[in-house]
Design goal:
The chain is mostly helical. The protein has five helices and no strands. The protein starts with 6 loop residues before the first helix and ends in an 8-residue tail after the last helix.
């Protein structure tokens, strides 16, 4: 499934998911702030606007038990898988010519 989202939309979605996880863990913003080491103001801004530094985002993810989600963010693509449809089509081109 291909989804085209702007960086702003993606940031808001990540913030919403982090807030949902915080609430699921029955944690207040203040508690998460203390547990993660991210200031209350930064956490509040993140949940409202999706704006946060990578360092603070990773601290929040660690406090929410989601840090491992980032481990595979930019993993190397399997060399055996085609990178595009064109590559896939060219890879399976004919092996013999016609007579």
């Amino acid at each position: 499934m291909i989804s085209i989202k702007s960086p702003f939309e993606m940031a808001k979605e990540i913030a919403k998911k982090a807030q949902e996880k915080r609430l699921k863990l029955n944690m207040s913003q203040k508690t998460l702030s203390e547990k993660s080491g991210v200031s209350y103001g930064t956490l509040k801004k993140f949940e409202q606007k999706g704006q946060i530094s990578l360092d603070s985002l990773l601290k929040i993810a660690l406090a929410l038990g989601e840090l491992d989600t980032f481990e595979h963010l930019f993993t190397k693509v399997d060399d055996h898988l085609p990178a595009s449809i064109d590559e896939l089509l060219n890879k399976h081109s004919r092996k013999r010519g016609r007579q």
